[in-house]
Amino acid sequence: MVDNDVYVEDGVVKQVGRNLIIPGGTRVIDARGKYVIPGGIDPHTHMQLEFMGTVSADDFYQGTKAALAGGTTMIIDFVIPKKGESLIEAYRSWREKADEKVCCDYALHVAVTWWSDRVKEEMEQLCKNDGVNSFKMFMAYKDTFMLRDHELYGVFDHCKQLGAIAQVHAENGDIIAENTKKLLARGVTGPEGHALSRPEDVESEAVNRACVIANQVSCPLYVVHVMSKSAGAMLASARNNGYKVYGETVAAALGTDGSNHRHASWRHAAGYVMSPPLRDDPTTPDALMEFLAKDILQVTGSDNCTFTASQKSLGQDNFSKIPNGVNGVEDRMSVIWEKGVHSGKMDPARFVAITSTNAAKIFNIYPRKGCISVGSDADIVIWDPNKTRIISAKTHHQAVDFNIFEGMECHGVPEYVIVNGRVCVDEGDLKAVQGHGNFIPTPVFPPYVYNMVKNREEEKVSNSVSRNNVENDIGGTAESKPSTPTPVHEPTVVASQAPEPRLTTPSSKGQRNLQDSTFSISGESPNGLHEQESVEMDDTAPRSCIRVKNPPGGQSSGSFW
Ligand code: URQ
Ligand code: ZN
Ligand code: ZN
Questions:
Q1: DSSP state, 521?
Q2: What are the residues facing 146 on neighbouring strands?
Q3: Which of 142, 305, 307 to mutate to test the pocket of ligand 1 (most atoms within 8 A of CB)?
Q4: How many CA atoms within 13 Å lie on the side-chain side of 216?
Q5: Which of 196, 261, 461, 548 has its CA 20 to 30 A from that of 405?
Q6: Helix-then-strand count for the chain, H and E
Q7: Which pLDDT score is estimated for 459?
Q8: pTM
Q9: Which residue puts its alpha carbon closest to atom 1 of ligand 1?
Protein backbone atom coordinates (compact mmCIF):
# COMPACT_ATOMS: atom_id res chain seq x y z
CA MET A 1 0.00 0.00 0.00
CA VAL A 2 1.41 3.43 -0.89
CA ASP A 3 0.72 6.70 0.88
CA ASN A 4 -0.06 9.30 -1.78
CA ASP A 5 -2.10 12.29 -2.78
CA VAL A 6 -3.82 12.65 -6.15
CA TYR A 7 -3.84 15.91 -8.06
CA VAL A 8 -6.36 16.35 -10.88
CA GLU A 9 -6.52 19.14 -13.47
CA ASP A 10 -8.56 19.45 -16.66
CA GLY A 11 -10.20 16.08 -16.11
CA VAL A 12 -6.89 14.22 -16.00
CA VAL A 13 -4.77 12.84 -13.18
CA LYS A 14 -1.69 15.08 -13.23
CA GLN A 15 0.17 13.96 -10.11
CA VAL A 16 0.12 10.98 -7.81
CA GLY A 17 2.52 11.09 -4.92
CA ARG A 18 3.48 12.81 -1.68
CA ASN A 19 4.47 16.40 -1.04
CA LEU A 20 2.69 17.46 -4.20
CA ILE A 21 3.31 20.97 -5.36
CA ILE A 22 -0.10 22.33 -6.31
CA PRO A 23 -1.40 25.78 -7.27
CA GLY A 24 -3.51 27.88 -4.89
CA GLY A 25 -7.30 27.76 -5.35
CA THR A 26 -7.29 24.01 -5.71
CA ARG A 27 -10.31 22.29 -4.19
CA VAL A 28 -9.23 19.75 -1.63
CA ILE A 29 -11.37 16.69 -0.95
CA ASP A 30 -10.70 14.97 2.33
CA ALA A 31 -10.70 11.19 1.93
CA ARG A 32 -9.85 10.34 5.50
CA GLY A 33 -11.13 6.86 6.43
CA LYS A 34 -12.21 6.12 2.87
CA TYR A 35 -10.84 4.30 -0.19
CA VAL A 36 -9.93 6.26 -3.31
CA ILE A 37 -10.56 3.91 -6.21
CA PRO A 38 -10.89 4.06 -9.99
CA GLY A 39 -14.48 4.68 -11.09
CA GLY A 40 -16.44 1.51 -11.77
CA ILE A 41 -16.70 0.25 -15.35
CA ASP A 42 -19.90 -1.67 -16.19
CA PRO A 43 -19.20 -3.55 -19.44
CA HIS A 44 -22.72 -4.88 -19.84
CA THR A 45 -25.74 -2.56 -20.12
CA HIS A 46 -28.78 -2.22 -22.36
CA MET A 47 -30.05 1.33 -22.14
CA GLN A 48 -33.28 2.08 -24.11
CA LEU A 49 -32.96 -1.27 -25.89
CA GLU A 50 -35.81 -2.13 -28.28
CA PHE A 51 -36.51 -5.71 -27.23
CA MET A 52 -39.39 -8.22 -27.01
CA GLY A 53 -41.97 -5.69 -28.18
CA THR A 54 -40.96 -2.77 -25.99
CA VAL A 55 -37.98 -0.52 -25.05
CA SER A 56 -36.01 -0.93 -21.84
CA ALA A 57 -36.98 1.73 -19.30
CA ASP A 58 -33.58 3.23 -18.45
CA ASP A 59 -32.41 5.49 -21.26
CA PHE A 60 -28.84 6.69 -21.67
CA TYR A 61 -29.49 9.69 -19.44
CA GLN A 62 -31.25 8.08 -16.53
CA GLY A 63 -29.20 4.89 -16.82
CA THR A 64 -25.86 6.69 -16.64
CA LYS A 65 -27.16 9.02 -13.92
CA ALA A 66 -28.00 5.94 -11.88
CA ALA A 67 -24.59 4.48 -12.70
CA LEU A 68 -22.87 7.53 -11.22
CA ALA A 69 -25.01 7.35 -8.10
CA GLY A 70 -23.60 3.89 -7.47
CA GLY A 71 -19.94 4.65 -8.25
CA THR A 72 -19.81 3.52 -11.89
CA THR A 73 -18.18 6.12 -14.16
CA MET A 74 -18.24 4.26 -17.47
CA ILE A 75 -20.60 1.82 -19.18
CA ILE A 76 -20.20 -0.34 -22.27
CA ASP A 77 -23.56 -0.82 -23.97
CA PHE A 78 -24.59 -3.18 -26.77
CA VAL A 79 -25.60 -2.26 -30.31
CA ILE A 80 -27.98 -5.08 -31.24
CA PRO A 81 -28.95 -5.02 -34.95
CA LYS A 82 -31.99 -7.01 -36.06
CA LYS A 83 -31.25 -10.03 -38.28
CA GLY A 84 -30.49 -8.64 -41.73
CA GLU A 85 -29.89 -5.09 -40.49
CA SER A 86 -26.62 -3.30 -41.23
CA LEU A 87 -24.31 -3.37 -38.19
CA ILE A 88 -22.95 0.04 -39.14
CA GLU A 89 -26.37 1.63 -39.41
CA ALA A 90 -27.34 0.14 -36.05
CA TYR A 91 -24.09 1.47 -34.54
CA ARG A 92 -24.86 4.95 -35.87
CA SER A 93 -28.34 4.91 -34.38
CA TRP A 94 -26.94 3.88 -30.98
CA ARG A 95 -24.43 6.76 -31.15
CA GLU A 96 -27.28 9.17 -31.93
CA LYS A 97 -29.29 7.86 -28.98
CA ALA A 98 -26.40 8.02 -26.52
CA ASP A 99 -24.04 10.87 -27.36
CA GLU A 100 -26.27 13.73 -26.19
CA LYS A 101 -27.59 11.94 -23.14
CA VAL A 102 -24.78 10.16 -21.32
CA CYS A 103 -23.66 11.58 -17.97
CA CYS A 104 -20.47 9.49 -18.04
CA ASP A 105 -18.17 8.06 -20.69
CA TYR A 106 -19.33 5.04 -22.64
CA ALA A 107 -18.22 2.55 -25.27
CA LEU A 108 -20.11 0.10 -27.48
CA HIS A 109 -20.03 -3.62 -28.21
CA VAL A 110 -21.81 -4.70 -31.40
CA ALA A 111 -23.92 -7.84 -31.61
CA VAL A 112 -23.59 -10.12 -34.64
CA THR A 113 -27.13 -11.48 -35.02
CA TRP A 114 -26.67 -12.76 -38.59
CA TRP A 115 -23.67 -13.83 -40.68
CA SER A 116 -22.67 -12.97 -44.25
CA ASP A 117 -19.82 -11.49 -46.24
CA ARG A 118 -21.43 -8.10 -45.70
CA VAL A 119 -21.45 -8.59 -41.93
CA LYS A 120 -17.83 -9.65 -42.12
CA GLU A 121 -16.95 -6.49 -44.00
CA GLU A 122 -18.90 -4.25 -41.63
CA MET A 123 -17.20 -5.79 -38.60
CA GLU A 124 -13.85 -4.81 -40.10
CA GLN A 125 -15.05 -1.26 -40.76
CA LEU A 126 -16.37 -0.93 -37.20
CA CYS A 127 -12.98 -1.97 -35.87
CA LYS A 128 -11.00 0.25 -38.21
CA ASN A 129 -13.20 3.36 -38.26
CA ASP A 130 -15.56 3.39 -35.29
CA GLY A 131 -13.70 2.34 -32.17
CA VAL A 132 -15.33 -1.06 -31.74
CA ASN A 133 -13.24 -4.02 -30.58
CA SER A 134 -15.85 -6.46 -29.29
CA PHE A 135 -18.74 -8.39 -30.79
CA LYS A 136 -21.46 -10.33 -28.97
CA MET A 137 -22.96 -13.49 -30.44
CA PHE A 138 -26.13 -15.07 -29.07
CA MET A 139 -26.49 -18.85 -28.83
CA ALA A 140 -30.07 -18.30 -27.60
CA TYR A 141 -33.07 -16.19 -28.69
CA LYS A 142 -33.77 -18.55 -31.58
CA ASP A 143 -35.11 -16.80 -34.73
CA THR A 144 -34.20 -13.33 -33.40
CA PHE A 145 -30.51 -13.18 -32.45
CA MET A 146 -29.24 -16.76 -32.44
CA LEU A 147 -26.29 -17.98 -34.57
CA ARG A 148 -25.51 -21.60 -35.45
CA ASP A 149 -22.24 -23.33 -34.58
CA HIS A 150 -20.74 -23.01 -38.07
CA GLU A 151 -21.60 -19.32 -38.02
CA LEU A 152 -20.01 -18.93 -34.60
CA TYR A 153 -16.91 -20.60 -36.03
CA GLY A 154 -16.77 -18.05 -38.83
CA VAL A 155 -17.42 -15.05 -36.61
CA PHE A 156 -14.86 -16.16 -34.01
CA ASP A 157 -12.29 -16.72 -36.75
CA HIS A 158 -12.96 -13.25 -38.09
CA CYS A 159 -12.75 -11.71 -34.59
CA LYS A 160 -9.33 -13.32 -34.17
CA GLN A 161 -8.12 -11.88 -37.48
CA LEU A 162 -9.43 -8.44 -36.48
CA GLY A 163 -7.90 -8.59 -32.99
CA ALA A 164 -11.38 -8.25 -31.51
CA ILE A 165 -12.98 -9.81 -28.42
CA ALA A 166 -15.71 -12.35 -29.15
CA GLN A 167 -18.47 -12.34 -26.55
CA VAL A 168 -21.19 -14.96 -26.22
CA HIS A 169 -24.57 -15.23 -24.61
CA ALA A 170 -24.20 -18.95 -23.88
CA GLU A 171 -27.46 -20.89 -23.75
CA ASN A 172 -28.72 -23.61 -26.07
CA GLY A 173 -31.49 -21.84 -27.96
CA ASP A 174 -32.88 -25.01 -29.56
CA ILE A 175 -33.41 -26.77 -26.23
CA ILE A 176 -35.02 -23.64 -24.79
CA ALA A 177 -37.44 -23.45 -27.71
CA GLU A 178 -38.48 -27.09 -27.34
CA ASN A 179 -38.80 -26.88 -23.55
CA THR A 180 -40.89 -23.72 -23.88
CA LYS A 181 -43.34 -25.37 -26.26
CA LYS A 182 -43.72 -28.35 -23.94
CA LEU A 183 -44.21 -26.23 -20.79
CA LEU A 184 -46.81 -23.98 -22.42
CA ALA A 185 -48.64 -27.02 -23.79
CA ARG A 186 -48.85 -28.34 -20.24
CA GLY A 187 -50.29 -25.03 -19.03
CA VAL A 188 -47.17 -23.66 -17.34
CA THR A 189 -47.41 -19.98 -18.33
CA GLY A 190 -46.11 -18.12 -15.24
CA PRO A 191 -42.61 -16.62 -14.72
CA GLU A 192 -41.46 -19.90 -13.14
CA GLY A 193 -41.75 -21.40 -16.63
CA HIS A 194 -38.93 -19.16 -17.82
CA ALA A 195 -36.40 -20.73 -15.47
CA LEU A 196 -37.82 -24.23 -16.04
CA SER A 197 -37.27 -23.86 -19.79
CA ARG A 198 -33.54 -23.11 -19.43
CA PRO A 199 -31.96 -25.01 -16.50
CA GLU A 200 -28.27 -24.73 -15.63
CA ASP A 201 -27.02 -27.44 -17.98
CA VAL A 202 -28.61 -25.61 -20.94
CA GLU A 203 -26.23 -22.78 -20.05
CA SER A 204 -23.15 -24.83 -19.20
CA GLU A 205 -23.46 -26.94 -22.36
CA ALA A 206 -23.36 -23.77 -24.44
CA VAL A 207 -20.45 -22.34 -22.44
CA ASN A 208 -18.42 -25.45 -23.16
CA ARG A 209 -19.43 -25.46 -26.84
CA ALA A 210 -18.49 -21.80 -27.27
CA CYS A 211 -15.09 -22.38 -25.62
CA VAL A 212 -14.39 -25.36 -27.91
CA ILE A 213 -15.38 -23.48 -31.08
CA ALA A 214 -13.38 -20.37 -30.14
CA ASN A 215 -10.36 -22.46 -29.27
CA GLN A 216 -10.42 -24.13 -32.68
CA VAL A 217 -9.64 -20.74 -34.24
CA SER A 218 -7.53 -19.41 -31.36
CA CYS A 219 -10.04 -16.66 -30.71
CA PRO A 220 -10.07 -15.07 -27.24
CA LEU A 221 -13.56 -15.54 -25.81
CA TYR A 222 -15.50 -13.51 -23.22
CA VAL A 223 -18.55 -15.26 -21.78
CA VAL A 224 -21.10 -12.69 -20.61
CA HIS A 225 -23.50 -13.04 -17.66
CA VAL A 226 -22.31 -16.36 -16.26
CA MET A 227 -25.29 -17.22 -14.06
CA SER A 228 -24.58 -20.67 -12.65
CA LYS A 229 -22.04 -22.78 -10.77
CA SER A 230 -21.87 -25.31 -13.59
CA ALA A 231 -21.20 -22.64 -16.20
CA GLY A 232 -18.44 -21.26 -13.98
CA ALA A 233 -16.99 -24.74 -13.64
CA MET A 234 -16.90 -25.06 -17.44
CA LEU A 235 -14.90 -21.84 -17.64
CA ALA A 236 -12.51 -23.07 -14.95
CA SER A 237 -11.91 -26.23 -16.97
CA ALA A 238 -11.40 -24.30 -20.22
CA ARG A 239 -8.89 -21.97 -18.57
CA ASN A 240 -7.09 -24.97 -17.06
CA ASN A 241 -6.82 -26.36 -20.60
CA GLY A 242 -5.11 -23.15 -21.68
CA TYR A 243 -8.09 -21.71 -23.55
CA LYS A 244 -8.04 -17.92 -23.73
CA VAL A 245 -11.40 -17.33 -22.12
CA TYR A 246 -12.74 -14.69 -19.73
CA GLY A 247 -15.89 -14.86 -17.63
CA GLU A 248 -18.24 -12.12 -16.54
CA THR A 249 -21.01 -12.39 -14.02
CA VAL A 250 -23.58 -9.78 -13.06
CA ALA A 251 -24.88 -8.07 -9.92
CA ALA A 252 -28.17 -9.95 -10.07
CA ALA A 253 -26.46 -13.35 -9.88
CA LEU A 254 -24.28 -12.17 -7.00
CA GLY A 255 -27.07 -10.58 -5.00
CA THR A 256 -30.16 -12.74 -5.39
CA ASP A 257 -31.42 -16.06 -6.79
CA GLY A 258 -34.18 -17.87 -8.67
CA SER A 259 -36.48 -18.51 -5.71
CA ASN A 260 -38.23 -15.27 -6.66
CA HIS A 261 -39.66 -16.86 -9.83
CA ARG A 262 -42.19 -18.70 -7.63
CA HIS A 263 -43.31 -15.62 -5.67
CA ALA A 264 -47.08 -15.39 -5.22
CA SER A 265 -47.08 -11.95 -6.85
CA TRP A 266 -46.88 -12.25 -10.65
CA ARG A 267 -45.29 -8.83 -10.91
CA HIS A 268 -42.65 -9.72 -8.36
CA ALA A 269 -41.82 -13.03 -10.04
CA ALA A 270 -41.73 -11.48 -13.52
CA GLY A 271 -39.42 -8.73 -12.22
CA TYR A 272 -36.65 -11.36 -11.83
CA VAL A 273 -36.96 -12.76 -15.35
CA MET A 274 -33.69 -12.44 -17.22
CA SER A 275 -31.57 -14.78 -19.38
CA PRO A 276 -29.80 -16.93 -18.48
CA PRO A 277 -32.13 -17.14 -15.50
CA LEU A 278 -31.30 -16.59 -11.84
CA ARG A 279 -30.73 -20.05 -10.40
CA ASP A 280 -32.78 -21.87 -7.77
CA ASP A 281 -29.65 -23.20 -6.05
CA PRO A 282 -29.32 -20.77 -3.10
CA THR A 283 -25.55 -21.33 -2.93
CA THR A 284 -25.07 -19.84 -6.41
CA PRO A 285 -24.40 -16.20 -5.38
CA ASP A 286 -21.65 -17.20 -2.93
CA ALA A 287 -20.16 -19.67 -5.41
CA LEU A 288 -19.98 -17.02 -8.15
CA MET A 289 -18.37 -14.58 -5.72
CA GLU A 290 -15.79 -17.25 -4.88
CA PHE A 291 -15.15 -17.70 -8.62
CA LEU A 292 -14.46 -13.95 -8.83
CA ALA A 293 -12.14 -14.09 -5.82
CA LYS A 294 -10.20 -16.99 -7.39
CA ASP A 295 -9.97 -15.46 -10.87
CA ILE A 296 -12.12 -18.14 -12.41
CA LEU A 297 -14.32 -15.19 -13.31
CA GLN A 298 -12.68 -11.83 -14.01
CA VAL A 299 -15.34 -9.20 -14.60
CA THR A 300 -18.65 -8.00 -13.17
CA GLY A 301 -21.32 -6.13 -15.08
CA SER A 302 -24.99 -5.46 -14.49
CA ASP A 303 -26.76 -6.49 -17.69
CA ASN A 304 -29.04 -3.58 -16.79
CA CYS A 305 -32.09 -4.03 -19.01
CA THR A 306 -35.07 -2.76 -17.03
CA PHE A 307 -38.80 -3.08 -17.68
CA THR A 308 -41.68 -1.61 -15.68
CA ALA A 309 -44.63 -3.63 -14.40
CA SER A 310 -46.72 -2.77 -17.44
CA GLN A 311 -43.92 -3.75 -19.79
CA LYS A 312 -43.34 -7.07 -18.01
CA SER A 313 -47.12 -7.72 -18.26
CA LEU A 314 -46.67 -8.28 -22.01
CA GLY A 315 -45.99 -11.84 -20.87
CA GLN A 316 -48.77 -12.21 -18.35
CA ASP A 317 -50.27 -15.17 -20.25
CA ASN A 318 -47.04 -16.62 -21.61
CA PHE A 319 -43.71 -16.51 -19.78
CA SER A 320 -41.77 -16.54 -23.06
CA LYS A 321 -43.22 -13.08 -23.79
CA ILE A 322 -42.01 -11.49 -20.55
CA PRO A 323 -39.33 -8.96 -21.55
CA ASN A 324 -36.05 -10.37 -20.24
CA GLY A 325 -33.99 -8.12 -18.03
CA VAL A 326 -33.40 -6.66 -14.58
CA ASN A 327 -31.71 -3.69 -12.90
CA GLY A 328 -28.14 -3.52 -11.60
CA VAL A 329 -26.27 -0.51 -12.97
CA GLU A 330 -26.79 1.57 -9.81
CA ASP A 331 -26.37 -1.17 -7.20
CA ARG A 332 -23.59 -3.33 -8.70
CA MET A 333 -20.69 -1.84 -6.72
CA SER A 334 -22.46 -1.85 -3.33
CA VAL A 335 -23.82 -5.38 -3.79
CA ILE A 336 -20.35 -6.67 -4.65
CA TRP A 337 -18.73 -4.79 -1.77
CA GLU A 338 -21.29 -6.23 0.66
CA LYS A 339 -21.21 -9.81 -0.67
CA GLY A 340 -17.54 -9.86 -1.63
CA VAL A 341 -15.40 -7.57 0.53
CA HIS A 342 -17.52 -7.07 3.66
CA SER A 343 -18.14 -10.81 3.74
CA GLY A 344 -14.37 -11.42 3.66
CA LYS A 345 -14.22 -13.26 0.32
CA MET A 346 -11.92 -10.72 -1.35
CA ASP A 347 -9.86 -7.66 -0.58
CA PRO A 348 -10.43 -4.10 -1.87
CA ALA A 349 -7.78 -4.53 -4.58
CA ARG A 350 -9.65 -7.51 -6.06
CA PHE A 351 -12.89 -5.52 -5.80
CA VAL A 352 -11.32 -2.80 -7.95
CA ALA A 353 -10.03 -5.38 -10.43
CA ILE A 354 -13.43 -7.02 -11.00
CA THR A 355 -15.49 -3.81 -10.99
CA SER A 356 -13.16 -1.67 -13.09
CA THR A 357 -9.61 -2.63 -14.05
CA ASN A 358 -10.07 -6.01 -15.69
CA ALA A 359 -12.77 -4.64 -17.98
CA ALA A 360 -10.47 -1.75 -18.90
CA LYS A 361 -7.63 -4.15 -19.73
CA ILE A 362 -9.76 -6.60 -21.72
CA PHE A 363 -11.43 -3.86 -23.77
CA ASN A 364 -8.13 -2.02 -24.22
CA ILE A 365 -8.83 1.28 -22.50
CA TYR A 366 -6.31 0.74 -19.69
CA PRO A 367 -4.58 2.76 -18.20
CA ARG A 368 -6.73 5.64 -19.48
CA LYS A 369 -9.53 3.96 -17.57
CA GLY A 370 -9.53 1.49 -14.70
CA CYS A 371 -6.69 2.99 -12.71
CA ILE A 372 -5.50 6.14 -10.98
CA SER A 373 -2.17 6.92 -12.62
CA VAL A 374 -0.63 10.04 -14.12
CA GLY A 375 -2.37 10.58 -17.44
CA SER A 376 -5.44 8.53 -16.57
CA ASP A 377 -8.86 10.10 -16.95
CA ALA A 378 -9.96 11.53 -13.61
CA ASP A 379 -12.72 9.00 -13.05
CA ILE A 380 -12.33 8.57 -9.31
CA VAL A 381 -14.57 7.37 -6.51
CA ILE A 382 -14.12 8.05 -2.82
CA TRP A 383 -15.65 4.93 -1.34
CA ASP A 384 -16.86 4.74 2.25
CA PRO A 385 -16.50 1.10 3.29
CA ASN A 386 -18.33 1.57 6.57
CA LYS A 387 -21.35 3.53 5.41
CA THR A 388 -24.44 1.44 4.68
CA ARG A 389 -27.50 1.96 2.53
CA ILE A 390 -30.77 0.13 2.04
CA ILE A 391 -31.53 -0.54 -1.62
CA SER A 392 -35.07 0.31 -2.75
CA ALA A 393 -37.04 1.26 -5.85
CA LYS A 394 -38.40 4.10 -3.71
CA THR A 395 -34.98 5.74 -3.56
CA HIS A 396 -33.01 4.47 -6.53
CA HIS A 397 -32.31 6.74 -9.51
CA GLN A 398 -33.41 4.28 -12.19
CA ALA A 399 -36.50 4.72 -14.35
CA VAL A 400 -37.93 1.35 -13.38
CA ASP A 401 -40.58 0.79 -10.67
CA PHE A 402 -38.93 -2.37 -9.32
CA ASN A 403 -35.59 -3.30 -7.79
CA ILE A 404 -34.47 -6.93 -7.56
CA PHE A 405 -32.37 -6.02 -4.46
CA GLU A 406 -35.33 -4.37 -2.64
CA GLY A 407 -34.59 -4.04 1.07
CA MET A 408 -31.00 -5.28 0.90
CA GLU A 409 -28.64 -3.47 3.28
CA CYS A 410 -25.17 -2.98 1.82
CA HIS A 411 -21.90 -1.75 3.28
CA GLY A 412 -19.94 0.33 0.80
CA VAL A 413 -21.28 3.66 -0.49
CA PRO A 414 -19.69 6.21 -2.83
CA GLU A 415 -19.27 9.55 -1.02
CA TYR A 416 -17.74 11.34 -4.02
CA VAL A 417 -17.85 10.32 -7.66
CA ILE A 418 -15.60 12.31 -9.98
CA VAL A 419 -16.21 11.98 -13.70
CA ASN A 420 -13.53 13.36 -16.00
CA GLY A 421 -12.60 15.70 -13.15
CA ARG A 422 -16.16 16.92 -12.44
CA VAL A 423 -17.63 16.09 -9.03
CA CYS A 424 -20.90 14.38 -9.95
CA VAL A 425 -21.59 12.90 -6.54
CA ASP A 426 -20.65 15.41 -3.85
CA GLU A 427 -20.87 14.18 -0.28
CA GLY A 428 -23.54 11.79 -1.46
CA ASP A 429 -25.52 14.37 -3.46
CA LEU A 430 -26.00 13.39 -7.11
CA LYS A 431 -25.10 16.18 -9.54
CA ALA A 432 -25.08 14.33 -12.85
CA VAL A 433 -24.82 16.40 -16.01
CA GLN A 434 -26.56 15.21 -19.17
CA GLY A 435 -24.12 15.05 -22.08
CA HIS A 436 -21.02 15.28 -19.88
CA GLY A 437 -19.91 11.83 -21.01
CA ASN A 438 -18.04 11.01 -24.19
CA PHE A 439 -17.82 8.00 -26.48
CA ILE A 440 -14.58 6.13 -25.79
CA PRO A 441 -13.12 4.15 -28.74
CA THR A 442 -11.92 0.67 -27.81
CA PRO A 443 -8.92 -0.27 -30.01
CA VAL A 444 -8.37 -3.78 -31.39
CA PHE A 445 -5.60 -6.14 -30.26
CA PRO A 446 -5.70 -5.42 -26.52
CA PRO A 447 -2.21 -6.40 -25.30
CA TYR A 448 -3.66 -7.89 -22.13
CA VAL A 449 -5.54 -10.39 -24.28
CA TYR A 450 -3.65 -10.81 -27.54
CA ASN A 451 -0.08 -10.86 -26.34
CA MET A 452 -0.31 -14.48 -25.36
CA VAL A 453 -2.64 -15.92 -27.98
CA LYS A 454 -1.25 -19.21 -29.26
CA ASN A 455 -1.77 -19.48 -32.95
CA ARG A 456 -3.61 -22.80 -33.09
CA GLU A 457 -3.87 -22.75 -36.88
CA GLU A 458 -0.09 -22.83 -37.16
CA GLU A 459 0.00 -25.55 -34.57
CA LYS A 460 -2.45 -27.66 -36.64
CA VAL A 461 -0.58 -27.12 -39.88
CA SER A 462 2.70 -28.05 -38.20
CA ASN A 463 1.06 -31.26 -37.01
CA SER A 464 0.24 -32.30 -40.58
CA VAL A 465 2.10 -35.22 -42.17
CA SER A 466 3.79 -35.02 -45.57
CA ARG A 467 3.41 -38.23 -47.58
CA ASN A 468 4.68 -39.20 -51.00
CA ASN A 469 3.53 -41.91 -53.48
CA VAL A 470 0.09 -42.03 -51.89
CA GLU A 471 -1.33 -43.54 -55.12
CA ASN A 472 1.23 -46.33 -55.06
CA ASP A 473 0.66 -46.77 -51.36
CA ILE A 474 -3.05 -47.11 -51.97
CA GLY A 475 -2.14 -49.56 -54.80
CA GLY A 476 0.05 -51.46 -52.29
CA THR A 477 3.22 -51.25 -54.42
CA ALA A 478 5.23 -48.71 -52.42
CA GLU A 479 7.26 -50.25 -49.64
CA SER A 480 5.51 -49.28 -46.44
CA LYS A 481 8.03 -47.10 -44.71
CA PRO A 482 6.81 -44.88 -41.95
CA SER A 483 5.80 -41.40 -43.10
CA THR A 484 8.03 -38.60 -41.93
CA PRO A 485 5.85 -36.23 -39.94
CA THR A 486 6.82 -32.61 -40.33
CA PRO A 487 8.47 -31.40 -37.14
CA VAL A 488 5.96 -29.94 -34.70
CA HIS A 489 6.78 -26.31 -34.19
CA GLU A 490 6.18 -24.87 -30.79
CA PRO A 491 2.97 -22.82 -31.14
CA THR A 492 3.94 -19.20 -31.67
CA VAL A 493 3.46 -17.43 -28.40
CA VAL A 494 4.10 -13.75 -28.57
CA ALA A 495 5.03 -12.89 -25.04
CA SER A 496 5.43 -9.23 -24.41
CA GLN A 497 3.91 -7.31 -21.60
CA ALA A 498 2.24 -3.98 -22.19
CA PRO A 499 4.17 -1.48 -20.10
CA GLU A 500 2.34 -1.15 -16.82
CA PRO A 501 1.99 2.48 -15.75
CA ARG A 502 4.13 3.32 -12.78
CA LEU A 503 3.02 5.71 -10.13
CA THR A 504 5.19 8.79 -10.50
CA THR A 505 6.15 10.72 -7.42
CA PRO A 506 6.61 14.39 -8.23
CA SER A 507 9.84 15.89 -7.02
CA SER A 508 9.49 17.04 -3.46
CA LYS A 509 11.68 20.03 -4.20
CA GLY A 510 10.11 23.46 -4.30
CA GLN A 511 7.26 24.74 -2.12
CA ARG A 512 6.45 22.99 1.10
CA ASN A 513 3.86 20.31 1.03
CA LEU A 514 0.41 21.88 1.46
CA GLN A 515 -1.02 18.85 3.09
CA ASP A 516 0.36 15.89 4.88
CA SER A 517 -0.84 12.82 3.17
CA THR A 518 -1.67 9.40 4.50
CA PHE A 519 -2.98 7.86 1.29
CA SER A 520 -1.95 4.33 0.73
CA ILE A 521 -2.27 3.34 -2.91
CA SER A 522 -1.69 -0.32 -3.71
CA GLY A 523 0.98 -1.01 -6.29
CA GLU A 524 1.82 -4.40 -7.83
CA SER A 525 -0.39 -7.28 -6.69
CA PRO A 526 1.28 -10.56 -5.72
CA ASN A 527 0.65 -12.03 -9.17
CA GLY A 528 2.60 -9.22 -10.78
CA LEU A 529 -0.48 -7.62 -12.25
CA HIS A 530 -0.77 -3.96 -11.63
CA GLU A 531 -3.82 -4.04 -9.39
CA GLN A 532 -5.69 -0.85 -9.14
CA GLU A 533 -5.04 1.77 -6.60
CA SER A 534 -7.08 1.51 -3.51
CA VAL A 535 -6.23 4.00 -0.91
CA GLU A 536 -6.66 3.00 2.67
CA MET A 537 -6.86 5.85 5.09
CA ASP A 538 -5.48 5.68 8.55
CA ASP A 539 -7.94 7.42 10.83
CA THR A 540 -5.28 8.55 13.22
CA ALA A 541 -3.15 10.09 10.48
CA PRO A 542 -3.26 13.77 9.54
CA ARG A 543 -5.73 14.58 6.80
CA SER A 544 -5.33 13.43 3.24
CA CYS A 545 -7.08 14.53 0.15
CA ILE A 546 -7.58 14.67 -3.56
CA ARG A 547 -6.73 17.98 -5.07
CA VAL A 548 -8.34 19.23 -8.20
CA LYS A 549 -7.50 22.41 -10.05
CA ASN A 550 -9.20 24.43 -12.78
CA PRO A 551 -6.80 25.57 -15.47
CA PRO A 552 -5.40 28.95 -14.49
CA GLY A 553 -8.09 31.57 -15.18
CA GLY A 554 -10.90 29.32 -16.33
CA GLN A 555 -13.39 26.56 -15.74
CA SER A 556 -12.18 23.13 -16.76
CA SER A 557 -14.52 20.42 -17.98
CA GLY A 558 -14.18 19.02 -14.50
CA SER A 559 -14.88 22.24 -12.62
CA PHE A 560 -13.49 22.45 -9.16
CA TRP A 561 -13.36 25.64 -7.18
O1 URQ B 1 -29.52 -11.29 -23.22
C2 URQ B 1 -29.15 -10.15 -22.91
O3 URQ B 1 -28.06 -9.94 -22.43
C4 URQ B 1 -30.04 -8.96 -23.10
C5 URQ B 1 -31.04 -9.11 -24.20
C6 URQ B 1 -30.67 -8.56 -21.78
N7 URQ B 1 -31.60 -9.48 -21.22
C8 URQ B 1 -31.30 -10.47 -20.38
O9 URQ B 1 -32.18 -11.14 -19.87
N10 URQ B 1 -30.04 -10.75 -20.10
ZN1 ZN C 1 -27.28 -11.87 -23.09
ZN1 ZN D 1 -27.16 -8.39 -21.81
A1: B
A2: 138
A3: 305
A4: 14
A5: 196
A6: 18, 21
A7: 60
A8: 0.86
A9: 275
